[in-house]
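Handout, page 2. Input:
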Amino acid sequence: MPKHGKKYREAARLLEPLKQYPPDDAIDLLKRVAYANFDESVEVHARLGIDPRQADQTVRSTVVLPHGTGTTVRVLVFAAGEADRVARDAGADYVGSDDLVQQIQGGWLEFDAAVAMADQMGKVGGLGRILGRRGLMPNPRSGTVVRDVADLPNVLRELKGGRVEFRNDRTGIVHVAIGKKSFEPQQIRGNLYAFVDALQRSKPSGVKGVFCRTLSISTTMSPGIDLDLAETIAKAAEAAA
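Output:
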C-alpha cells in the first residue's frame, strides 16, 4: 500500500488514537487537520450493521442538506410537452426526451443529476447500463422519477439546493459528502445532523441489532475523525425534532 505523505502524517498526529470526538470538537478539529490548498469536500463515513448481500438490508435514501453541498448541480430532466416547459421554468439545465437519450447513448454525460417524468421511463430504461454505473439513473426510491408535473419544481429545487442520495457500498459502508471545508462550523454541523437523522430513518426492517456502528468525518485529503456515535445520533434527533 502507498505510504501517506508528510502533511497527512502531521495532520494525523493531531488526533488522539481510538478517541471518539463529540460533534463540535470533531468539526473544530476537522478545520485544523485539513491541509490541502483547495476547498476540499467534507465527507461522512458510516459503517453499518447490515449484510449488504441481503436485498432487504439495502440502505438507499436521500437527504436535503440545509446548507447545501457547496457545489453547482447540473440537473437533466427527461420530459415532454407541459413537463418540458415546467422543467425549463424551474431551472433545469437540460430538458428533452429522445434527443437526450441519443446524446447519452453517444457518450455525453455532462450533468450531475437526472430526473425523469414517469411517462419517459420506457425510453430512459435502456440507459440503465450507462447511468446506473454512475449513480445517475432516475429511480422512484430516490425521488427522481416524477409522476405529477406539479411536483417537478420542488424536486429540482431540492436537487439544486442540497439534496443528496446515499446508499451503502458492498462492504456495508455509506459515504456521503455534506459540504465544503470553507463552510462555517455551524453549517457543517447542521448538514451532519441532517444526514445522520436521515440515515437513522433509513434503517431497513430486515436489520436486527445495532444499525450504525461507527461514524467518522473527514475532508477529501485528511485523516478521518471518529465521532462519538451516541452523542451524534442524539443531537441529530434533537435537531430534527
